[in-house]
Design a protein that fits this description.
CATH superfamily: HUPs
Oligomer: single chain
Number of strands: 6
Strand content: 5-15%
Number of helices: 9
Distance between the termini: 36 Å
Number of domains: 1
CATH topology: Rossmann fold
Bound molecules: adenosine-5'-triphosphate
Radius of gyration: 17 Å
CATH architecture: 3-Layer(aba) Sandwich
Length: about 220
């Protein structure tokens, strides 16, 4: 069973890395692909270049063999639609391997606005990473999908290639890339929010030296 975790990773930090490992171990994934997006569909564009974000990600996970940096969205270029990525994985790994798409609880609430959300649910299981407590969905369509597809049994995910929704409680670390970029731009230290080697790369290449208006 393969996990997919997309993000801006601008830069990757301990929030991403810890929840990635939580899910790998809890679901006993054979591997988790971390996919930096090329161009965002629903948010502002990344600050660091694709090559810099990929290099920082590779550095962060180099000692963790089950975490793999996957550059297919960067190589494809253009807006990074999750559906295109899932199609590429299906082409590569076949129709029967269970694929688990990791999304944060906030991102999950926005699923109805994604490009062809039903097609996404038909090509992967959704693993919703959340705080402890009952899951809620404000959108009526999403609530209906949860009612139809939810499983609380991780072994059920292995029984079919796609289509379940599974809620996974993960370690809560109040870390965001936005804060890390802001600290760097202000000349302050974001140390211990992200791996030292990633911080060293960000500083060496002055990835976030200038404060962004929207940050
Ligand atoms: P930014 O601050 O630039 O918006 P970010 O820190 O939220 O970035 P992203 O690369 O946009 O990082 O996030 C990719 C995925 O990782 C999203 O699904 C997001 O919900 C999740 N994520 C980000 N930070 C954390 C965290 N501290 N704990 C758990 N999940 C996180």
């Amino acid at each position: 069973m393969i996990g997919l975790f997309g993000g801006t990773f601008d830069p990757v930090h301990h929030g991403h890395l810890r929840v990635a490992l939580d899910v790998v171990e809890h679901l006993n994934l054979s591997q988790l692909r971390l996919l930096p997006l090329a161009a965002a569909v629903h948010r502002r564009q990344p600050i660091a270049s694709p090559a810099q974000r990929l290099a920082m990600l590779q550095t962060a996970i180099r000692d963790e063999p089950l975490l793999i940096a996957d550059d297919r969205e960067l190589t494809r270029g253009g807006p990074s639609y999750t559906l295109d990525t899932l199609r590429a994985f299906r082409d590569e790994f076949g129709a029967t391997v269970p694929l688990c798409l990791l999304v944060g609880a906030d991102a999950f609430e926005g699923l109805p606005d994604w490009h062809r959300p039903l097609d996404i649910l038909e090509r992967a299981h959704l693993i919703v990473m959340q705080r402890p407590g009952a899951p809620t969905a404000r959108d009526a369509w999403l609530r209906e999908q949860v009612e139809q597809r939810r499983t609380d049994d991780p072994t059920a995910l292995r029984g079919q290639a796609a289509g379940h929704i599974y809620f996974q409680t993960v370690t809560q670390l109040d870390i965001s890339a936005t804060r890390i970029r802001r600290l760097l731009a202000q000349g302050m230290s974001p140390r211990y929010l992200l791996p030292d080697a990633v911080l060293a790369m960000a500083r060496e290449h002055s990835c976030y030296a200038v404060q962004q208006a929207s940050a």
